[in-house]
Amino acid sequence: MFRLLCLLLLLALPAQGEEVVAGLSQDSVQITTNFDGSEILIFGAVKRAAPLPDGPPLQVIVTVEGPTAPITIRRKDKRFGIWVNNAAVEVDEAPSYYAVATSAPWDDVILDIEDLRHRVSIDRAIRAVGLEREDGADFIEALIRIKESQNAYLNAFGSVEISEETLFKTSIKLPANLTEGDYTARFYLTRGGEVLDVHETSIDVSKVGMEQFLFNLSRQQPLIYGLMSLAIAIFAGWAASAVFRYIRL
After folding, report:
1. Do 194 and 111 form a contact (C-beta atoms < 8 A)?
2. Distance between CA 185 and CA 174 in Å, rounded?
3. pTM, full prediction
């Protein structure tokens, strides 16, 4: 209710052209031991200083981007019956998670030059400057396929609902294998493929409880974490052996 009131107040302010005002059902996600994914409801509106313009219909693009980091993409080939690394490409930055939702098919919502400028699509969100290999694009495509199979990269074209070219809503699914960090939700308002306005907000994804304790322990006290893991493994082996001996009796 508070977010809805804020949205209504923003709509009451004077607008310059067409501007997007958007919000999220939640601005934080907590990863616990039984976390199996989440879904964020995204809603917004368009405020205008003038009547609805003529011409192409209004379109909306929503993206959610996870923390980025350099990544090495390797290609394996089978040599003498063994799979070995044959080639590798270094990518400057790749999002750990990236989702794109649109109000229409991709070619209807944004021009290629605008996509290049704002880095909206998945392949443009991956920064691979100066790839020297001629087949560098094949490595990027392979990375996208792997991420898609892990539900880490998602295209949801046509999933944004627009009402009266003013209100819009959609939902974005977050998988269970989320990387901890700051996520960025961006909202693009377009007409005729040209970007009119961009708005962004952040989503905090963090581990809590036992997940946070174990994560911090593995990073800050790796020796203690290793000894504790070894002790748990020894105890689990002893307990399993004791159970089997009891069953045989």
Report:
1. yes
2. 12
3. 0.75
